[in-house]
Amino acid sequence: MAPVEIRDLTKRFGSVHAVSDLSFDVQAGRVTGFLGPNGAGKSTTLRALLGLVHPTAGTATFDGRSYDELDRPSAHVGAVLEDAAFHPGRSARNHLRVLATTGEHPEGRVDEVLAAVGLEDAADRRVKGYSMGMRQRLAIAAALLGDPEVLILDEPTNGLDPPGIRWMRGLVREQAANGRAVLISSHVLAEVAQSVDDVVVIAEGELRGHGTLENVLGGDDGPATEVRSADQERLAGAIEQRGHVVQRDGDSLLVLGITPGEVGEIAGQEQITILGLAPRARSLEAAFFALTGGET
User: Fold this and answer.
1) pLDDT tier, 250 (very low <50, low <70, confident <90, very high otherwise)
2) What is the pLDDT of residues 120-155, one digit of tens each?
3) How many whole angstroms separate alpha carbon 282 and alpha carbon 170?
4) Cβ neighbours of 17 (radius 10 Å)
5) 117: Cβ contacts below 8 Å, ≥ 6 apart
6) Banded model confidence at residue 225, pLDDT cuts 50, 70, 90
7) What residue spans define the domains of the chain?
8) I need a labelling partner for 11 at 20 to 30 A (CA). Which of 31, 167, 203, 257 fits?
9) Nearest one of 110, 107, 157 to 137, comparing CA atoms
10) CB < 8 Å & 24+ apart, contacts of 230-238
11) Which residues share a beta bridge with 212?
C-alpha cells in the first residue's frame, strides 16, 4: 500500500468536472511532481486528499485511510497550500508554538523547523513584516513541525528567490532521502524537473501521464524520432500498439522513447513505406505542452 493513493477520484462542481476518474500513487522515499496547467484540477485533487472538499466519487487516502481518519494528522501529513494564512501580529515562533500545542508536538520542534527553513534569525519578528519568500518558508516550517511521513507542497517556490528555489530543491531531496513521500504540485515544469523522481501530469482534470520523469516527459537525453510515411495513421497506430508515445506534428510524427532504427523496424514489420526518418531532440517543456494539449 502506497503512502498516498488516489483511486478513481472525481469531483464535480455543478456542471463543471474539476477532476475525472483520476488514479495515481505517491511512493515513500521519492519526490513526485504533480504537474498540469492552471485550472487542470491539481488544487482540487489536493484539497480532496486533505479532506477540504468531498469527492463526488472515488477515494484519496494515506496508507488506506482518509485524512479525517488519521490520528494526529499533522504527525502523518504536512501540507502547504497556496492560500496559507498567518496571524499578522504573531511572530513566526509563536505561530509555530500554537501549532505544536494543537498538534501535540514537542515544543523543541519549533526551533528545529525554524532552523531547517532558515528563519531562526527572524523567528521573533511579526509575520506582517515578512516578505513573500519568508512567509513561504514559514508555511513549510509548519508543514514539517509534526515530522510527517508525507509532505504535500502546492506551488512551493512561490515568492522564493533563486537561492530560495535551490534551497527548496535540496529540502525535498533530503525529505525523500529520509524515507518520506513528497508530492509537489506545480504548473511550472522547470521549477520541479531538477528535483522530482516521478511525475503525474493532468490536464482538464484527467490523467495524461504517470511514471518516472524520463518515461513520461522524455528528457532532453532521451531518444525521439521524427518520421514521415505513406500512411501516417496506420504507422502511428502500430507504434502506439507497441507501447510508445506518438505525437502528430504537421505532416510528420514525433515518436518518443525509441530510435529511428526502431521506428524503421516497426514500419518494415507493418510494410509501411517510410518517406523520411531522423532523430529529433525535444525539451522537457515541449513534452509537457504536448501531454497537456499545449495549455499553459
Assistant:
1) confident
2) 999 999 999 999 999 999 999 999 999 999 999 999
3) 27
4) 16
5) 137, 138, 140, 141, 144, 171
6) confident
7) 4-216, 221-280
8) 31
9) 157
10) 230/272, 230/273, 230/275, 231/272, 231/273, 234/270, 234/272, 235/266, 235/267, 235/270, 235/272, 238/266, 238/267, 238/269, 238/270, 238/272
11) 198
φ/ψ (deg, to 5) at 143: -65, -30
How far, CA to CA in Å, does 205 sit from each of 110, 183, 202, 293? 37, 17, 6, 13
Q: Per-residue b/e over 117-133, b at no fewer than 16 CB within 10 Å?
A: bbbeebbeebbeebeeb
- Specify the length of the chain in residues: 296
Residue with C-alpha cell 509537489?
184
State the Cα–Cα distance between residues 28 and 17, nearest whole angstrom.
Answer: 30
CATH level 2 (architecture), domain 221-280: 2-Layer Sandwich (3.30)
The position carrying cell 513584516 is 129
pTM score of the predicted model: 0.77
Cβ contact 53:11 at 8 Å:
yes
CATH class of the structural domain 4-216: alpha beta
